[in-house]
Amino acid sequence: MKKLLEISLGVVTSVGGFLEMGSLSTAAQGGAAFGFKLVWPIVLGTLCIVFLTEMSGRFAAVSKHTIADGIRDRFGIRFFLFPLVATLIVNTLVLSAEIGGVGVALEMATGIQHQWWALPVAVLAWFALWRSTFGLIEKGMSLLGLVTLSFVAAAVALRPDWHQVASGVLPSLPHHDPANYWFTVVSILGASITPSLFLFYSSGAVEDRWDRGYLGANRAIAGLGMAFGGGISLTVLIAAACVFPAHGITRVENYHQLPMMLVTVFGFGGFVLFIASLAFACFGATLEIALEQAYFVAQGFGWNWGENRMPREDPAFTLVYTCALAIGAIPIAVGVDPLKLTVFSMALTAMSLPLTVVPFLSLMNDESYVGDHRNGAFSNAVVIAIVALSFVLAIVTVPLQILGGT
């Protein structure tokens, strides 16, 4: 019964952490501009993150290492600096976007511009990290994030043509605006296959003291949790495809347009649900990414780390997430548009994937770390495909941003 409870809580954690500003905005952009034709990158991205998350949990449970300290231990500190720098840059932009997402929700609720909320949100996130344990953050914010299931209800109530939705699972060439089409594909994949999620997942597994007895639970959490989270992201795209074109909107230019997805179905209640969904999901992501920054730096340099420790026991770890939140708040406070920052940061996330996925693949085939639990031929083939896709995305992301970015 205890193990079953851990699995169910893990599923809740995955749902709460999967849908945030990146997935919401990129799915909404895709649905508005191309209808159901961009179902396939959400499905592909979800499959990829299921495999990567399962592997990261398996690696942590068997080796007792996180991915970050495994990369440093296996390849040395000089090599580790490459994924470290890339991760810090990308995570800082994503963290800013998530702080901006909370600020946007508060602006909708109060009328006070989102710029003024950046520093208060960062301070509140810092206080939550300073005072809370890993389990409280993981479970508490994830349970609050279940309000995002309102998108599922909205998608069903809008009665889309499910045959067209199903046809979108197969990739198709765009009939118009190809540069924006492929840039949106890159952004959706970047929002789905985010390194911070599986890096954070391996750190959480070590924090929770997983061992080989958790391998079955890990498969359930990775499979059911990420698939369910991807399903919510899919319903955002469905709602956007049903609502925005009907109102003559083919490109989401302003974050004030986003509540229409729920308002159309639930009226004013939908507005409240959207504010709650955006605020809780983005605040949870803010905590997760700030922690991931601290995890990655501390693990890479061999410092004491752990959200379950008192701050005085790991001062350098605490300093990293404090600085991350302070720096992340600056772009929003000076007026950077959260929606544009989000879309750009998701594309940059896709660009950075090879720097973490390639060494991770090597670790998953190293018997000295995972023994008999190393990757099989099928898992290797999937990850190699992800790596190949990552390199392609890395090559095309910058010109796509210039040609088709918003």
UniProtKB/TrEMBL annotation:
GO MF term set: cadmium ion transmembrane transporter activity; manganese ion transmembrane transporter activity; symporter activity
One matching Pfam family: Nramp
GO cellular component: plasma membrane
Domain of life: Bacteria
Main location class: membrane
InterPro entries associated with the record: NRAMP_fam
Bilayer topology term: Multi-pass membrane protein
Residues that span the membrane, as ranges: 38-55, 75-94, 114-130, 142-159, 179-201, 221-246, 258-283, 316-336, 342-365, 377-402
One of the protein's GO biological processes: iron ion transmembrane transport
Keyword vocabulary terms for this entry: Membrane, Symport, Transmembrane, Transmembrane helix, Transport
Presence of the UniProt keyword Transmembrane helix in the record: yes
Compartments in which it is found: Membrane
Name of the protein in its database record: Mn2+ and Fe2+ transporters of the NRAMP family
